[in-house]
Amino acid sequence: xxxxxxYPAVSGDDGSWFEGLSAFDNTATAVYMGHITATGLNQTNGxxxxxxxxxNGTTINxxxxxxxxxxxxxxxxxxxxxxxxxxAGPAAPTTYAGAQGATRxxxxxxxxxxxxxxxxxYQSPDLSTVxxxxxxxxxxTAIVIYLEDNGSTVNNSRQFYSYDxxxxxxxxxxxxxxxxxxxxxxxxxxxxxxxxxxxxxxxxxxxxxxxxxxxxxxxxxxxxxxxxxxxxxxxxxxxxxxxxxxxxxxxxxxxxxxxxxxxxxxxxxxxxxxxxxxxxxxxxxxxxxxxxxxxxxxxxxxxxxxxxxxxxxxxxxxxxxxLQxxxxxxxxxHQSLSLSISAFDPLVVSNAxxxxxxxxxxxxxxHVISALGGYESAxxxxxxxxxxxxxxxxxxxxxxxxxxxxxxVKIWEGFVNEISITxxxxxxxxxxxxxxxxxxALIYSTVDTSVSPPITGQRATTAFSGDADSQTxxxxxxxxxxxxxxxxxxxxxVRDVFLNENKDPQSSxxxxxxxxxxxxxxxxxxxxxxxxxxxxYNQIANTGTDDLSDVLAAIIAADPNSIFSTSTSKITxxxxxxxxxxxxxxxxxxxxxxxxxxxDSSDNRYIFGIYNExxxxxxxxxxxxxxxxxLSDPAQRIETPQGIEVKPWDVKAGKWLFVPDFLIGKIQxxxxxxxxxxxxxxxxxxxxxWNLQIQGGKTxxxxxxxxxxxxxxxxxxx
Length: 718
Prior knowledge:
This protein is mainly beta.
């Protein structure tokens, strides 16, 4: 089987047409489907053209399209019919009449998309029947998919990013098997023998034609035809033709080792012409690991005047399908990994593109996403030249990193916190950036030295002192120190020494003799929410209380580096009242954690994270599950409730995962948190290529109640 993923190639390869106004649009940044009442658009249809090369006779095993939602839409009643323009390589329509009048395939697939959230990726049902109809009739060079309204209720639609959006546009995945091929081999041998007194002419012609046809669906069939024709014209000549055919077929569903050995020996002791043809065909089909060893040995011994011709044809066809057990972790049906990674200058500098080819240089990759915090961390290991690696060591800290999936949807972003390089026996580490302190203040207790013994007095705080060069390069990184009884002069000295020692990243080196040739680079990255740990927040202008969500937004807006988006579109309003007055020099992150832990007035749990474009997201945990995973699925796939596969790198934290074939028949409780079949994804870790680890979390109401009371926990119990 072969897999391919294709995308729209140019502007105009996707668009929409609107039946209510007979209108057409192929330049917008979104494609629409369903029913829209605005200005009388009514029935709304979309199309996407995918350039692709598929031969006539190809078998389509699986096919689907992934879409990235360009708007959050949850209303039910969207009904879409998916077909394709009937043709070998149709162009995308350019007018309303062209779109409406095109001939569709007979095959079609109906789809009722569920709730869509902007920026998330969604997958169509299996479209293999639609594409199979095309390859049954044509050598296909392009496919135009139609997504047409099929009775959606009024004003219910879905929309996804188009090619003109620049990223996140639709992607067509196809798993297919090429049509069978035929190979013909012909061998001709002619031998002439002449003596001085008697002329004897011996002509031996051996023609061996081997035709192998292999068609692989769920089994493999091998057919071999061998035809040998010998014509001999001679004076006193003996011609012997021997044909030996050995066929061995082994089918097994366990770990099997099959060894086939064919040995042919021909010995001639008189004036004889001998032709021996040996054909060995071995077909092995297995559903687990199979090792097949085929050894063919041909020995020819000639004692007197003789001519020996030996033709050996060996055909070996092996079809292996590896199915997953629950304990393993590498499903064979997955397409080739296609992560794209780009590096940019630090956001505090220019955000100019530095390198968009890191994905092609990957040795290893993993990322972590948490329900509290969002994009947590990522580790990227790449192979590169010494010059490029040295540039990364010198200039790479705080570079902005973006990671995209196979459909060019961003799945992680953050900054480079630490860099490790290996050059032969030399290993150098620079960072972590999170340890930088380039804007420092010191809280201390004053000392009255006019009395004996000296008396420790009131608490005081020095002014902040910063290093402009460090702040220009890395941003403002605040640190508030604390000291015991010291004088104001001593407090200032301690602050300044600490600033001078920590305003730049630290480096460490190690040399191991006897090693050479190893060149490597590892980037340890963090999500941007970690920057909340590097500035303090005080608010002394206002007293009283305010809505929790408003206080949260104010803390985020106080970021001294303007890294975080000022948009509050994804901050859910929470009217729980909290105090406004804050004057403890607490970090922004400790304050955010405290606010999120309070939940709402009903003690529901809330989560918070920084995701794409550094937009803060704050909301109650979901009330329905978004993923499911069946224990009985040998491929261990994560799926949507509709059964659509979710790639491991696309799984998000802060969602519910349902295990439907665990505790079968159990009545579902009124709350998801009370159902042992439900797992709240507290943290997910994806490791290239296919590994996914999910950590469940606690979702009780007591934690929120204790947080409101200022308690970290309670003791006792039985």
